[in-house]
Each structure stands twice: as structure tokens, then as C-alpha cells.
Amino acid sequence: MAGTSRGRMFSKVEALLLVLMIGTLGAVLMPQLSSAGEDRRIGELQRSLESLQQSIDLYRARDASGRYPDLLGSGWKPLIERGFLERAPENPLNGHSDVSRVASPGHGWHFDPQTGRLGACYFDEPSGTITERP
Predict the structure, then answer these.
(1) How do 99-100 and 109-112 pair as beta strands?
(2) Whole-angstrom Cα distance, residue 58 to residue 80?
């Protein structure tokens, strides 16, 4: 009988060690897994920006007057009507598709009509980081 209780005690210690190891692994891996989700969103946003910028530049190259599309006045309509886009793109960080002159809360994109540069609200393109939480 002494061997039976000793066997049970040993398996309880093993179970305790296993729980401690799983908890430690979870504590170490959770920050890495949460940053992987943010890295995915940043990558998706960077790909969207590159594609949209190419569409804007191509629009200008094919426009008879050589102008950028009027994204501030007409939104994405000029690019959609000429077949450069199928629909208004949403900023993956906040789900908004509207365009403003400066980055501001509640907007998806910001556009400079002089330079033709498009940016995403809540995103700092040079550093590749999310600036605020929408």
C-alpha cells in the first residue's frame, strides 16, 4: 500500500510540473502571437497602399490633363469609373474608406492632391508602425 500512495504522489507532482511548464510557455509565447497579428495587419496595409498608389499614378499617366484623381472631392469614384479599382478600398486598421486631406480619426485614407501621395490613417509609413488604435 505504501507503494500505491507514493505512486499517486509522484503523478500529482508530475501534473503540477506539467501545468507550470505549460503556463510558462504560454506566458512567453502570448506576446509573440499577439504581435504576429499586428504584423499581419501592417503587411496587409502596406500592400494596399502600394497597390492604391500604383492605381493613382497610372490614373495620372493616362489622364489627358495629367492630373491626379479628385479623391478629396469625389472619393474613389474616378478610379472606379475608369476601371482602376472595383470598389472603394477600406483601411484594414479601421474599416473606413473615405479620403481626407490630412490623417484624422474617422477617416480611412489621407491624400495630398499636389504630390499624389496616399497614406493610411493610423499608420506611419516611414517607420511601418501603427500610430494609434482606431
Answers:
(1) parallel
(2) 13
Grid-cell match 497614406, residue found: 119
- CA dist 74 and 57 (Å) reads 17
Q: What is the tens place of the pLDDT at every residue in 27-44?
A: 777 766 666 777 888 888
pTM score, whole prediction: 0.72
Instruction: List, as own/partner pairs, every contact residues 125-129 make where C-beta atoms lie below 8 angstroms and the sequence separation is at least 24, other chains included.
Output: 125/46, 125/49, 128/42, 128/46, 129/42
Q: Give the sign of the dihedral formed by CA 63, CA 65, CA 67, CA 70.
A: negative
Q: What is the pLDDT of residues 45-61, one digit of tens each?
A: 999 999 999 999 999 99
What is d(CA 134, CA 94) in angstroms, rounded to the nearest whole number? 6
